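Practice problem: predict the structure.
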Amino acid sequence: MVHPWVRELHQESVRFRSLYLRQFEPTIDSRTQLIMDTDAEYKVLSMIAAPLEMFFELTISGNLYLYTELQPCESCNSIINQFKDKFPNITVELFWELPYPP
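Answer:
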């Protein structure tokens, strides 16, 4: 028998994923041949986009400063561009320390 709190936690996890992690379409990385839906850029931009879309007009404006340790991969660049397309009045400034592995 599953405790009710375990079932409730699972339901919240499913609801969270459906609300937040379906904002953008991840791509398959040509170097690794993996779908890049676990990258931090994908997750954080989805987490930012969901409440913006729910509570504000898509014409909201502002600046978003995104720091990542590695230069974004091609899938992350695609996610960033999807964010820019969805919120054209938000300027995204991207910073990183290390180049993406060749």
